[in-house]
Amino acid sequence: MSSEFTEAMELIQKLRIFQIRGRDKRGRQIFRIIGKFFLARIVSVDVVKKYLEEKIFPELEKQPFAVVYLHTDVEKSQNFVGISALRSIYDAIPAKVRDNLEAVYFVHPGLQARLFLATFGRFLFSGGLYGKLRYISRVDYLWDHVRRNEIEIPDFVYDHDEDLEYRPMMDYGLESDHPRVYGAPADSPAEMYSTRCIS
């Protein structure tokens, strides 16, 4: 294994992009994924697959689990891996792990993600994954499914929730959450479009 490969594995560990901890309200263990910390331009798909194979999958083979995926602040140019990469990672998941996956809580999906998954989700992801998907537009709604004190949610996720309370049109892609657009004049065309990638 090359030093670059090892360093990338260590970076994934340090950022805690993937973490198994806590339970949902049905007693299933939680596999949390932080999309914002996924440095797609730095960490390759091969490194991610190797990390999951060594550190995560052995734990998930043992019992039913649910995924909490935090999509908050995912941007195409920075931390979105792309559709083919997602499919490659999904295809690398062992059958035992897929069989144990019972729910995916997708936090802060946004309009583009919903449209994309509604259009292509059933074709991209086999094994009934699309039917296990639950969109969670606010963190408060996550607590209907997950035990609040057993999962760590980063501050920036709560901050995004606050933005959504004051600017609800962000949920529908009619107002951008991009910092350069926020505060633009009311008649600015930039205000009308979301710049989030599949968000």
TrEMBL record:
Name of the featured protein: Uncharacterized protein
Source organism: Catharanthus roseus
